[in-house]
Design brief:
This protein is of the alpha+beta class. It has 2 domains: about 100 residues, Immunoglobulin-like (Sandwich); about 110 residues, Cytochrome Bc1 Complex, Chain D, domain 2, CATH 1.10.760. Helices cover about 25% and strands about 20% of the residues. It contains 7 helices and 9 strands. The strands form 2 sheets. Strands 2-9-8-4-6 form a 5-stranded mixed beta sheet, covered by helices on one side. Strands 1-3-7-5 form a 4-stranded antiparallel beta sheet, with no helix packed on it. The longest helix has 14 residues.
């Protein structure tokens, strides 16, 4: 039987971050994350994905069933061709006990890796401070740039295609940013919000995002990648995975008292009075689970 209800502590990981110092002429970096089932029931590792096509992650089998006390590796390969500098990539692992975000990082001396005909030579496989600031400014000017720019859409929109399970939708287009070790400091932790949250709260943020911020609108009706069925599934997952902390402290269910549950008459968008601390965001830490 597969472990239920979800318990993020049922899997023990040898690390959440693996680093590698590239040697001159090295074209590939290899990483291995080791995980152990410390629970008394079987656990399924359903899927593993990466934040970029230059990095590939492999499971021993898919789905991978790990019995109590069982362990094994997730192997990750990063292409270094044409790259230099510090490269960080995210690895998202979807299991029956939650979603786990891992990171692989390689330091490459300038000009030390080979180039490949037909492949562009890039300065770095991840954003430097200047590039990050430029992208933040672009997103502030147009939140939907993540979906309009073809290169951005490969990571922030396309992975959701065909997915109708809320957990899978979250892993496909939310965890890429919100579970990343590199997430911006301005992004709050969903598990530490100090105000009530409920289904309306999550639906408003998912559907409309937040004007004046980098949070885009994910609903297709607003220019995003998610159809109504996917939005409904994601709302259900978020409601279970991030229960209202205030409601829990009061010993009562979440209500619509959340400040973002009151919406403007025009288009039902979140009001401008919402604190910046109300926006979605997840820090790297224990696996998310409903």
């Amino acid at each position: 039987m597969v472990q239920t209800p979800a318990d993020p502590n049922a899997l023990k990981w040898d690390a959440e971050l693996k680093t590698h110092q590239a040697a001159a002429g090295e074209a590939m970096a290899q990483f291995t994350f080791w995980l152990t089932n410390v629970s008394s029931a079987d656990i399924l590792v359903n899927r593993v994905s990466t934040s970029c096509g230059c990095t590939v992650a492999q499971l021993p089998s898919q789905p991978w069933r790990i019995p109590p006390g069982g362990d094994g590796p997730i192997r990750v390969t990063m292409s270094l061709i044409g790259k230099s500098g510090l490269i960080s990539k995210g690895v998202t692992v979807e299991t029956s006990v939650g979603i786990k975000q891992l990171t692989v990082r390689t330091e490459i001396p300038p000009g030390s890796t080979p180039t490949s005909v037909g492949l562009p030579v890039v300065a770095s496989g991840t954003m430097n401070d200047k590039e990050r600031l430029q992208n933040m400014q672009m997103a502030l000017a147009d939140r939907q740039v993540l979906f309009k720019n073809q290169d951005c859409a490969k990571c922030h929109a396309d992975p959701a295609h065909g997915k109708i399970d809320g957990r899978e939708v979250y892993a496909a287009v939310c965890a890429t940013c919100h579970n990343s070790h590199l997430r911006a400091a301005m992004v709050p932790d969903l598990r530490t919000l100090s105000h009530p949250t409920d289904a309306d709260f999550w639906r408003n943020w998912i559907t409309y995002g937040r004007a004046g911020s980098m949070m885009p609108a994910f609903a297709k009706s607003e220019g995003g990648p998610l159809d109504d069925l996917q939005v409904d599934a994601l709302v259900g997952f978020m409601t279970r995975a991030f229960p209202s902390r205030m409601a829990a402290a009061q010993g009562s269910p979440a209500t619509s008292a959340s400040p973002v549950s009151s919406v403007s008459p025009a288009g039902l968008r979140p009001t401008a009075q919402v604190s910046s601390q109300a926006g979605p965001g997840v820090r790297t830490g224990p696996a998310l689970h409903p």
